[in-house]
Design a protein that fits this description.
By secondary structure, this protein is of the alpha+beta class. The chain has 5 helices and 5 strands; from the N terminus they run ααβββββααα. Strands 4-3-2-1-5 form a 5-stranded antiparallel beta sheet. Strand 1 and strand 2 form a beta hairpin. It is flat, with a radius of gyration of 34 Å. The termini are far apart.
Amino acid sequence: MHNLFLILEEPAPNNSGWVSIALMVGVILIMYFLMIRPQKKQQKQIDDMRNNLQVGDEITTIGGIIGKIVSIKEETCIIETGRDGVRMRILRSAVRCVDVPANVANYTINVDDKKEEAAAEEIDMPTEGEAAENNDKKNKKKKK
């Protein structure tokens, strides 16, 4: 009985320091992969978009102004808004997104070609089994 109390009073080996350090490193790694890394990836995409702006791109600014890029300089660009040709000089960092890239803005689609493509997609040819069933139904209606 006396030995039992000695075992209980003996201090446990001091491994808690290493465990707490490992937990801290684990938490930091989890925070990096869940918060910091995606934010850096998104910022890189935004920087790439702003560096690849071209004359003719239709853009939206952070303030909500929609316009077409007329000229680009180092840190600024001039956009044209509206039909009356109002021009504004904005910073590249004020561009939120490119709505229509320049190469797509100049692309026009022939409406007649589009209608023909839509009509071709709507035609749905029946399979052999369905065709046979339809013929049987028509023949039964004719007999009645």
